[in-house]
């Protein structure tokens, strides 16, 4: 059973309460429960984390280098600012899927650039919290393909 890390950046702890017209009514705990259910169905274990601190996200990416097969990440605002998260992801060899709940391209221009997209194998945005499910499915497909060589 290989491990998929699902990492969430700043303010996502407020999911469900924060700008629900943009991010919806589901809480991060709801998202985590859905991710755990799907991962189990696909034969994977997940580590699900959220932090408002950039270094913690970097530390989890380093941890994933040791025991993770894939990373699904919603870096939130760090998407648009963090070269350090990009550098950390560049040290990880498995699939990386970037998720945004909202369609960042329909929003302010400062949300249009993503450091993380320079590394991500795929980017999902604007599909609401369903994007996490799709990201986990894609990571699982890529992990399976890699294991077959
Ligand atoms: C977000 C989009 C980012 O621009 C924003 O800073 C977030 C959430 C999303 O999931 O749509 O915090 O990553």
UniProtKB/TrEMBL annotation:
<feature type="binding site">
    <location>
        <position position="74"/>
    </location>
    <ligand>
        <name>substrate</name>
    </ligand>
</feature>
<dbReference type="GO" id="GO:0009423">
    <property type="term" value="P:chorismate biosynthetic process"/>
</dbReference>
<feature type="active site" description="Proton donor">
    <location>
        <position position="100"/>
    </location>
</feature>
<protein>
    <recommendedName>
        <fullName>3-dehydroquinate dehydratase</fullName>
        <ecNumber>4.2.1.10</ecNumber>
    </recommendedName>
</protein>
<keyword id="KW-0456">Lyase</keyword>
<keyword id="KW-0028">Amino-acid biosynthesis</keyword>
<feature type="active site" description="Proton acceptor">
    <location>
        <position position="23"/>
    </location>
</feature>
<dbReference type="InterPro" id="IPR001874">
    <property type="entry name" value="DHquinase_II"/>
</dbReference>
<keyword id="KW-0057">Aromatic amino acid biosynthesis</keyword>
<dbReference type="GO" id="GO:0019631">
    <property type="term" value="P:quinate catabolic process"/>
</dbReference>
<comment type="similarity">
    <text>Belongs to the type-II 3-dehydroquinase family.</text>
</comment>
<dbReference type="GO" id="GO:0009073">
    <property type="term" value="P:aromatic amino acid family biosynthetic process"/>
</dbReference>
<dbReference type="InterPro" id="IPR018509">
    <property type="entry name" value="DHquinase_II_CS"/>
</dbReference>
<feature type="binding site">
    <location>
        <position position="111"/>
    </location>
    <ligand>
        <name>substrate</name>
    </ligand>
</feature>
<dbReference type="Pfam" id="PF01220">
    <property type="entry name" value="DHquinase_II"/>
</dbReference>
<feature type="binding site">
    <location>
        <position position="80"/>
    </location>
    <ligand>
        <name>substrate</name>
    </ligand>
</feature>
<dbReference type="GO" id="GO:0003855">
    <property type="term" value="F:3-dehydroquinate dehydratase activity"/>
</dbReference>
<comment type="subunit">
    <text>Homododecamer.</text>
</comment>
<feature type="binding site">
    <location>
        <begin position="101"/>
        <end position="102"/>
    </location>
    <ligand>
        <name>substrate</name>
    </ligand>
</feature>
<feature type="binding site">
    <location>
        <position position="87"/>
    </location>
    <ligand>
        <name>substrate</name>
    </ligand>
</feature>
<comment type="function">
    <text>Catalyzes a trans-dehydration via an enolate intermediate.</text>
</comment>
<dbReference type="GO" id="GO:0008652">
    <property type="term" value="P:amino acid biosynthetic process"/>
</dbReference>
<dbReference type="InterPro" id="IPR036441">
    <property type="entry name" value="DHquinase_II_sf"/>
</dbReference>
<feature type="site" description="Transition state stabilizer">
    <location>
        <position position="18"/>
    </location>
</feature>
<comment type="pathway">
    <text>Metabolic intermediate biosynthesis; chorismate biosynthesis; chorismate from D-erythrose 4-phosphate and phosphoenolpyruvate: step 3/7.</text>
</comment>
